[in-house]
Amino acid sequence: MGEQNIARGGDNEAKRLFTRAVLNDLRALELMIEKGMIESGARRIGAEQEMFITDQDYSPNLTALDILGDIKDPRFTNEIALFNIEANLTPRRFEGKCLQAMEEEIKEVISIAKKHAGEHESKIILAGILPTLRQLDLTMDSITPVDRYYELNDRLKEIRGSDFRMDIRGVDELSVTHDNFLLEAMNTSFQVHFQVSGNEFVDMYNLSQAVTGPLMAVSVNSGLIHHYRLWHESRIAVFQNSIDTRSTTHQKRGTQPRVHFGNEWIESIVDVFRDDISRFSVVLTSEYEEDPVGMVNAGIMPKLKALMLHNGTVYRWNRPCYGVKDNIPHLRIENRVLPSGPSVIDEVSNAAFYFGLMSGMSQKISDITQVMRFSNARNNFLQACRTGLECHFNWIDGESISATRLIKQELLPLAASGLQSAGIDKDDIERYLGTIVKRVDSKQTGARWAIKSITEMNKDIHPDEKVRSVVAEMHQQQLEDKPIHEWPLATASQRTDWRAGFMLIGQFMTTKLLTVRPDDSMDLAASIMDWKRVRHVPVENDEGELVGLVSHRSILKKIVDGDDHKATAIKEIMNDQPIFAHPKTTTVEAIQIMREKRVSCLPVVENDKLVGVITEYDLIKVASHVLEADLKAYKNKASDSA
């Protein structure tokens, strides 16, 4: 669940002492490995189920602490943002009906979450990225008030020395900067854990790296960030950017990012930790064991609190983990690539595919490093994130093969064999791997469903309405517990109140802006107004800061005055102190501002940067749309009554 007993604002001496504790923990781990103390002969599976919380209209809702306060179940815990919660599933031996038991437990915890969410006017949604989530939802008002998260935000910003930046290109392109690390909270995952024997850990870890590409290709469920159609698993790109502490200089130098796939096949788990300790400074401190080596020599297995806390702030997509139960230490692989959703059966099917591949391929290939280049494993993963089942892989012995052919012809039979050899129930194997087969045959992953849904909606529908419809359909299909290959495409929904999409001007402002610079020609502004049929053009400097607003009226005045205007600069005629609003300004407040200030255009500014514009015409459209929605609702109610 993560260490929550974190000290804020530790001084440099405290950090040096904690670094020493991390090194002592690593020596203790080396000693346990040398003495053969790591548990062998037992394979166990586990998972972490993350969920989004929305309001009744499918926007993020900050009710996590209220919901968790009502839930008296130790499996539940908070996440970074107040619109997320997490449930940690019970570890199980990898045998018999363990997969069915996992599915039943996921349904149980989701049912508990839904029950208590309903008491706080909230819904629970499974999604890799919630499409209705916007940048204006990611302020520090949304952070869970826990010292761990405040300290993590402060330290990451301190190390980076600048705002966080996210650039993702898919069908559309998204480029944003953000002043805190809550971009990370856009993601929810279904993280699976696979405990393996100490003597097989290296081979199994490398194998996990190799199969992560195909696993990702069939599991992608994060194709949208709001209405932007990006990577099929945009979660990966978002997470890599949100925790990237590298300065521009470090990026140019090729410094390893804090979120990464790895650089090469590993040769020992100790080397993995050594590499991460060498590359990444301590960002959090907590209580730790004073003499872990002495504990090992005394037969008391330490928890390695310092090492595991540091490990928890380095985000490998396949993360090595250590734990102790009943004084027996064990090692496990945490595969962190799987998204939450689209449905519970889809999640468990993804897990079954992964566990089966790990078991089946380990029997067929003793050392994956001898038959596959690491660069191919890493590239396969990135290609899968970008295009899902549409990608091609460089596979064993350099074979080039499509994702669908590889999964159906080679990997699904291997996974079935691996599950059978582990003693997994035959009916469960057929059910879960059969779900993967149908998904591949239909080529409908969660990402493809969302992207296709929003693409095929009427282009005149507002983007906020589109994504609200997508989430409404997700919620309905999850209630019916259907796998993704059976989902109909989302259409403009009658299940939502469209007024919810127009409460804040940040939800409907124009963001694809045409702007001019102060030294640009007045003729350029006049031409833009003529071509695009607008009456105002914002003026910004090279840093994207709003410095003025030029209007159609000011241009006409200059012309009517009869002055020579051939070389007139924008700065000579612009309003250099324009009235502006913020993304979280309510629509009602915007209307009041326009009336009181007698303006027909409001630039929208956030952190001194121009981010959008709204006009009287936009507000008229909003009013018209809300009235139309009310009329439809009235007619539907009258029809139902009749």
Helix count equals 21
Structural class: alpha+beta
Percentage of residues in helical conformation: 40-55%
Low-confidence stretches: none
Number of β-strand runs? 20
CATH class placement of the largest domain:
Alpha Beta
Q: Span from first to last CA?
A: 53 Å
Structure description:
The chain is α+β, with helices and mostly antiparallel strands. The protein folds into two domains: 12-442, Creatine Kinase, Chain A, domain 2; 506-621, CBS-domain. Helix content is 44%, strand content 15%. The chain is built from 21 helices and 20 strands. The strands form seven sheets. Strands 1, 2, 3, 4, 5, 8, 13 and 14 form an eight-stranded antiparallel sheet that branches. Strands 6-7 form a two-stranded antiparallel sheet. Strand 2 and strand 3 (84-88) form a beta hairpin. Helix 1 (12-34) packs antiparallel against helix 8, helix 5 crosses helix 11 (344-364) and helix 11 crosses helix 14 (426-442). The mean pLDDT is 90.
Give the helix/strand layout.
Blueprint: H1 12-34, E1 44-54, H2 64-70, E2 76-78, E3 84-88, E4 92-93, H3 98-118, E5 123-125, H4 147-160, E6 164-169, E7 173-178, E8 190-196, H5 201-219, E9 224-225, E10 228-229, H6 234-242, H7 248-252, E11 259-260, H8 269-279, H9 292-297, H10 305-311, E12 315-316, E13 318-325, E14 328-335, H11 344-364, H12 374-387, E15 392-394, E16 400-402, H13 403-421, H14 426-442, H15 446-456, H16 463-479, H17 522-532, E17 536-540, E18 546-551, H18 552-560, H19 570-573, H20 587-597, E19 601-606, E20 609-615, H21 616-641
Parallel strand pairs: 11-12
Antiparallel strand pairs: 1-3, 1-4, 1-5, 1-8, 2-3, 6-7, 8-14, 9-10, 13-14, 15-16, 17-18, 19-20
Helix pairs in contact: 1-8, 1-10, 3-11, 5-11, 5-12, 11-13, 11-14, 13-14
